[in-house]
Amino acid sequence: MNFQTFARLGILAGLFLSVPAMSATFDWIGEPLKDVQINTVAFRGWVPDTAEPLAGVLVLIPGRHGDGRDMADNAKWQQLANDVGFGILACQFSDGDTGRYQSDDKAEVAKSINEAVKEFSKVSGRPELADAPLAFWGTSAGSNVSSKYCGFFPERVIAFGSSKGTWGPGGNSTAKFLEIPMIFAIGANDNAEWVKISTYHFDKGHGKAPWTLALQPNEGHGVEGSLDVIFPFFTSVINQRLGKATPASSQSNSIFKSELPKIGSTSTPSKTKTSLVKLNLRNGWLGDPKTYEIAAYSDFKGSKSSAIWLPDETTAMAWQNYLRK
Predict the structure, then answer these.
(1) Which of the 8 DSSP states describes residue 212?
(2) pLDDT at residue 49, as a whole number
(3) pLDDT tens digit string along 254-274?
(4) For the whole model, what pTM was predicted?
(5) What's 149's domain CATH number?
(6) Strands 22-29 and 4-11
(7) Which of 211, 212, 220, 163 lies closest to 188, judged by CA?
(8) Which range marks the domain in which residue 191 is found?
(9) Of 160, 171, 47, nearest in space to 105 by CA
């Protein structure tokens, strides 16, 4: 794939957050995707200014034909990325057919994301990112694109967070797919058919996969407050799957606490593949989908078969607060 790449150093808007004051941002244009009939493909990457090797990439995909590149500049996403030691790859797939790129029958979109990660690795001077684990977040159509990627390349996905997707995890139920920690924030006031389809597909992994359902009773199709539960979910499961935390210790705010280098420092780690830890559901927490009561797995008094799995106490509390709004 040919890319037109533009790089810049930017002072972050989030100066009052505990992120580095300087960061590197890269913009590039990809080739059109002919099979799914998408004419505009573009990306923005962000990395923190540190010499420490980065552990993976947050891949952010907006709703239908949206331009999500500005999410790479968002201070909250940058804070999350910094907390888990990741870079950010924010995507745009627009101008063309509205459905084919979501279905992605031949993995054309998924493969374009892989190529974009390689380009991101190259232009940022971060060879460790070329084959690094990917954590996906998407909303609406972006959630659907993300779930399809999880089906094509499950061994590479460290986590998947969905804000108001229209089919949840989709119809995939392979063993590797079921190992991916996923969270689905669904608004009960969203399109009734989408809610039905999403919960139907979620139920296929319920109880055997590290999947969390957050069915918010007062929200519709917008992102709204869903990131309040998705962010702690990501922090917990990413730490655990990298082997950097147990459920008891994953409440730590950061696994990326090394001293920051001076501006202009470079990273020279070798390109390696990371082996991801398979999560044990019994090490997590459970939540009652009706009362929203929560407890550690071994202490949960309700029906475990109908309970919602949660990776740790911090996420359980965020889940409870989100659903009680």
Answers:
(1) E
(2) 83
(3) 333 322 233 233 344 444 567
(4) 0.88
(5) 3.40.50.1820
(6) antiparallel
(7) 220
(8) 4-248
(9) 171
